[in-house]
Design brief:
The complex is a heterodimer. Chain A is an alpha/beta fold. Chain A contains 22 helices and 20 strands. Chain A has three domains: 160 residues, Rossmann fold, CATH 3.40.50; 176 residues, Rossmann fold, CATH 3.40.50; 170 residues, Rossmann fold (3-Layer(aba) Sandwich). In chain A, the strands form four sheets. In chain A, strands 2-1-3-4-6-5 form a six-stranded parallel sheet, sandwiched between helices. In chain A, strand 12, helix 13 and strand 13 form a beta-alpha-beta unit. In chain A, helix 1 packs parallel to helix 7 and helix 3 runs parallel beside helix 5. Chain B has two domains: 102 residues, ACT domain (Alpha-Beta Plaits), CATH 3.30.70; 73 residues, Alpha-Beta Plaits, CATH 3.30.70.1150. Chain B is 30% helix and 37% strand. Chain B is elongated, with a radius of gyration of 19 Å. Classes of the chains: A alpha/beta, B alpha+beta. At the A-B interface, strand 5 and strand 14 of A face helix 1, helix 2 and helix 3 of B.
Amino acid sequence: MRAVDAVMECLKAEGVDVVFGLPGGANLPTYDAFVTGGIRHILVRHEAGGGHAAQGYAKATGKVGVAFATSGPGATNLITPICDAMMDSVPVVFITGQVRTELLGTDGFQEADTLGITIPIVKHSFMIQDPREIPRAIHEAFYIARSGRPGPVLIDIPQDLSREEIDYEPVTDVRLPGYQPRTEGNQKQIRQAAKALAAAQRPVIYAGGGVVNANASEELVEFATSDRFPVTCTLMGLGAFPARVGGGGGVGEPNPQWLGMLGMHGTRAANYAMDEADLICAVGARFDDRVTGKLSEFAPHAKFIHIDVDPAEISKNIPAHIPIVGDAKHVLAKLLIEYRALGVDSARLGAWWERIEGWRAKYPLGYEDSTDDEIKPQYMIQALYEATGGEAIVTSDVGQHQMWTAQYYDFPAPRRWINSGGLGTMGFGLPSAMGAAVGCPDRLVCCVAGDGSVQMNAQELATCAQNKIPIKVFIMNNGYLGMVRQWQELFWDGKYSHVDTGEFPDFVKLAEAYGATGMRLTNKKTLVDDMKRAIATDGPVVVDVRVTREENTYPMIPTGHAAREMVG
Amino acid sequence: MSVVGEPATKEPLSLEELQASGSVRSGRKHVLSILVENKSGVLTRIAGLFARRGFNIDTLTVGPTDDDQVSRVTLTVDGALHPIDQVTKQLHKLINVLKIRDLEPGDTVTRELALFKVSADGAQRGELMQITEIFRGKVVDVTKRSVIVEVTGTTEKIEAFESMVRPFGLIEMMRTGEIAISRGRSET
């Protein structure tokens, strides 16, 4: 069969049910194969939208996302999603067309050195030099993308090779001598960690996106509740430890062991607990600068247990006293057994909890609500939580709205919160919501977008309208690039430089032009009901929510400061 | 010889071991011997990891091994300037990298080959030949006004020879960069 038909067979063998992509000259043969290939393809309007959609799909389902693009500009438009997937460890396979082999290196039409450009931002990549390599490359790509620490893998296929005839035989084994991710964790180290946790007076569990990636949320909850361990999550880990317990969504009570998110815009309870902890157990987290603040003053009293599937993360920023290389699911399960065997009395944590409760009582998350109809951005998120019963998959762009969503939407489960944490990509929210909705058609998917960010991939509304992908986009519209404005206000003497986006565009008209439903909400009193109305509307809906223009995201650890120096 | 982050072998399990394995600046030259799959683009991936961190690779050699599917990259980095532990861990994440050894100087035999083109007319030639002999070098080409000398040895020996012949007028020098092999019976 043709190599491109083998591509379809390989994708099916990998369980791929959808591909996001856009055709062009160099991948015309591949698109010919889609005609009879038996794989759903969603035509996006910009390759970046396709890449982020594949990421959203992967994050929501836990499966590998797939995005296709042509050579040259098609491939370079994928750079941001590839880099984003690398930073946030998202399993996505990108398959790009390339010019014919005889044109390689000649600056041919729509030629770009896709492999060379992407080397620093992929987990691995393949340049196809022989069409018979294609099936093996695809299976290896999927295996690499989803195993160990997940990440993006790129396959670049020259046009002429893709149309050649090959003898296709299904590949059933993948052998990679240089790639053997270790998942189990060293038993001796795990025992040592259990002992350290048993001896700790002021422990904190600091969980990150690795827990979500390893599907280890259950193990985390079981371990944390086997004693009264305080738990905080990173931005990427939200939902791994339920913010509420006892009844789904809004009906439950706040989870007593949940400290809230930590880091730059985390809660004071979480950050102060890290600051005073004597033992920090990091699980699938990477001590990012947005978490640690000033590195030299981060958690000055703590020893560190660091559990991560990627050995290169351990002791990268903070030297670990007890490093454990393994995936969170295996290690936490073993840690629980070891810890239970020690028969620890949780009464020893009484004084520590008293201290934490003190911070919680003194510094709850909060804001000054309006006294009239004005919608405060924080209230907008609380209203969305109420309107969705806390049960939606929520995606976001990057900026103030992202932080407020992280703070005020109490995620009850993993894979509900999809955002761009590492790279901080504006324009991520709308297409990733699209991908999540395709992957989870039975679940409500909402995107909380910024009025600045949403325009960076608004073209995918057309894709949503055409394919009846019913995402609900709630634009937190303050007419500013809000986070930049906040920093200019706080750290650049209030001199605003190019952050005012005004009232452009008219998002209701924009939505309608794309074939979606547009709504504008300005009244706090009816906000929850209006949001419910938007959610109940068929098809994609764009809701322009007008919020307070100049509101700051607090609390905050200013850059270069320690956690205890939080402001706001 | 320490093996960093290699599957199923030793990994640093305590803070002390980690420090010993070079996460802090070691203050010495490191010779990394890296076995890689013989595939296109591997060298770019390796070099990129150093470049991203602003690390300067002092020498780099690539050559075949007894297995034609596998090549060996030998590179030297100054551990006084750069903490190399992070970069070796990152190197190990490359799918095409099979094995990395950070060779301990005492347990390693290293060699480099250098060609020196030195200006030497009749009068100077004798002295130059003497020096060459002391360094167990070989004269491989002679013209009326210049001599080409081949010297093999450690980097220190090559540098010593260079300083000896510089006063004659060093026209050109070519060096291969170091290759290294571990002492004893075990494989590098």
